[in-house]
Amino acid sequence: MWRPELPYNELPDLPPRVDVESKRVLKHVAEARAALAGLDQAARRIPNPTVLLNAIPLLEAQASSEIENIVTTADELFTADQLNADATRPEAKEALRYRRALFDGVASVKQRPLSTRLLIEICSTLQARDMRVRDLPGTFVGNPVSRQPVYTPPEGRVLIAERLDAWTRFLHTTREFDPLVVMALTHYQFEAIHPFSDGNGRTGRIVNILVLIERGLLSEPILYLSRYIIQNKAEYYRLLLAVTADGAWEEWTSFMLEGIRETALSTMEKIDEIHVVHDDMQIELRSILPGGANADLLDVLFEQPYCRISTVMTRCGVSRPTATKWLKMLADNDVLVAIRAGKHLLYVNTRFFSVLTRTDRAPQPSPTLF
Ligand SMILES: Nc1ncnc2c1ncn2[C@@H]1O[C@H](COP(=O)(O)OP(=O)(O)OP(=O)(O)O)[C@@H](O)[C@H]1O
Ligand SMILES: [Mg+2]
Q1: Which of 161, 237, 274, 283 is deepest in the core (most CB within 10 A)?
Q2: In this predicted model, what pLDDT tens digit does every residue of 160-204 receive, in sequence order?
Q3: How far is the CA of 120 from the centre of ligand 2 (A)?
Q4: Last residue within a domain, chosen from 219, 242, 265
Q5: Domain of 320, in residue numbers
Q6: Looking at the predicted structure, is the pLDDT value of residue 87 above 80?
Q7: Is 107 inside any structural domain?
Q8: 214 and 286, same structural domain?
Q9: Is 200 touching ligand 1 by the criterion CB < 6 Å?
Q10: Shortest-distance Cα residue to atom 14 of ligand 1
Q11: Ligand 1, atom 13, residue with closest C-alpha
Q12: CA 95 – ligand 2 centroid, Å
């Protein structure tokens, strides 16, 4: 019998004992898979995939870290990413570590199946210290001030290791469920096992993406799922608990599938908008930098919304005076905005930045564009 304040050592292994793939869930599966396939295709079509690969995982890192109240702005993160400066706030460094853990995880699952070892590595990267599976009692989900537990995960290193083994076995052997349902089931289960003293939420959100990559539904980590989770955090928490307390698997799975669908569609919309901004800027570059426009320059401006003179020099193979002249001319013509970060000058592609960070639905393209 489960009680909020007692370690849930009887946590059952997957699969759930109830029928998860109800008609309603299968309808969500079909919609989420269509949206995800669309996103994967759109990402494969994009001329310069680095555009999304740099920026979206950084936004994912920002959103995911925010759940833990590590609050950074997208500006701060893109700046920190460019500068690697000591002055970078710890909060920004933490979010940058999230992206590194995500990238390392992606590289790993492209080589070998996801393992307990990888979970430990991911959590260690996030926490910037060697993490081990919890040994000491006292970890609970709940209000840290009142110390009122909402949920207390299983205790004891051996027991936790066994639960994790069963978790990886299920992930790799089940053929019973759609891979998206597998993601939803394993996400709940990972959080319920709660193997670490901290960082379980962020590790679990990285694992969501890795599961989709491992199952071949996504080729790169560009699904920005943490934004949905952060926007629906109360519901996310309520449903995790409802699975434990009431076996509410269907509701939980539907919630996660809806997240995949929504996030895939909104990321696809961003890709379309990026295409428009990119093509407009290509024309502007040609007219503002006569004879000097360099195809690599356009790439640089869309790999990160923030760029440095030195990046332009290296990537375009030009001298400092040339790189400086180009960026200054673009700033003088309002294509870029120059800002100072400490002793560094950064040039911001503000239109690209606002497409990346905008959360509302895209406006219809203006007729004047045609
Ligand atoms: N009732 C619950 N049962 C199991 N897991 C839960 C429950 N409620 C919340 N959680 C999970 O616990 C996570 C928080 O755990 P922890 O503090 O170890 O992770 P974190 O990465 O440090 O924080 P956060 O997820 O808030 O960023 C939540 O993100 C959620 O995934
Ligand atoms: Mg925490």
Answers
A1: 274
A2: 999 999 999 999 999 999 999 999 999 999 999 999 999 999 999
A3: 15
A4: 265
A5: 269-369
A6: no
A7: yes
A8: no
A9: yes
A10: 201
A11: 201
A12: 13
pLDDT averaged over every residue in the chain: 91
15-19, 22-26, 128-132, 274-278: which range is least confident on average? 274-278
Angle, helix 116-127 to helix 157-173, in steps of 10 degrees: 110
Provide the pairing of β-strand 337-341 with 306-307.
unpaired
Q: Which ligand gives the minimal distance to the CA of 198?
A: 1
Cβ of 241 less than 6 Å from ligand 1? yes
What pLDDT is stored for residue 180 in this prediction? 98
Number of domains comprising the chain? 2
Q: Whose CA is nearest to atom 22 of ligand 1?
A: 199
Q: What is the pLDDT of residues 93-111, one digit of tens each?
A: 999 999 999 999 999 999 9
Arithmetic mean of pLDDT, 2-6: 96
Above 60 in pLDDT, residue 219? Answer: yes
Q: Are residues 107 and 231 in the same domain?
A: yes
pLDDT of residue 364: 39
Instruction: For residue 237, give the ligand 1 atom closest to its CA.
Output: 8
Q: Whose CA is nearest to atom 25 of ligand 1?
A: 201
362: confidence class by pLDDT, cuts 50, 70, 90: very low
Q: Is the pLDDT reported for residue 53 higher than 70? A: yes
Q: Identify the residue whose C-alpha is closest to ligand 1 atom 28.
A: 201
Cα 201 to ligand 1 centre (Å): 4
Same domain (yes/no): 166, 282: no
Atom of ligand 1 nearest to the CA of 196: 18
Q: Is the CB of 199 under 6 A from ligand 1?
A: yes
How far does the centroid of ligand 1 lie from the alpha carbon of residue 297, in Å?
A: 42
